[in-house]
Amino acid sequence: QLCQAIEECKRLILALPEHSERQKDAVVRLIHLRLKLQELKQDPDEDEPNIRVVLEHRFYKEKSKSVKQMCDKCSTIIWGLIQTWYTCTGCYYRCHSKCLPLVSRPCVRAKVSHQAEYQLSICPESGLDSQDYRCAECRAPVSLR
Fold this sequence. Notes:
Elements: H1 2-15, H2 21-40, E1 51-54, E2 57-61, E3 69-70, E4 77-78, E5 85-88, E6 94-96, H3 108-114
Antiparallel strand pairs: 1-2, 2-5, 3-4, 5-6
Helix pairs in contact: 1-2
Function: Positively regulates lysosome peripheral distribution and ruffled border formation in osteoclasts. Involved in bone resorption.
GO molecular function, one term: zinc ion binding
Family: Belongs to the DEF8 family.
């Protein structure tokens, strides 16, 4: 059924006018269908898949065990020797495998590729001091380290 949906989506893309919004949406749908097919073809013996797609992030399971990383979701250390972790290939968002279902921010690269417009006005937001040097979304402390 998935292969049939992919073929139908390809035909639809070719039938739609070039550079139209409907064609762009169909291309995004085709990408999601192909990723789903790729996930289904993963080795069933493996306990966690190598590729996970969450909110347009393309997360790949990391193999490095020695590099100390920080989880962008829970702001704690990822212990590579004992924890599985993923990195988005688009925006380099890193998180534990346990934090993957909790990711709430869509991939920045995917958003920019869909809506590539430049903001030419000066940013009206106030600085980090007004946020008590904390992330506006998750309230994790922002440091210079």
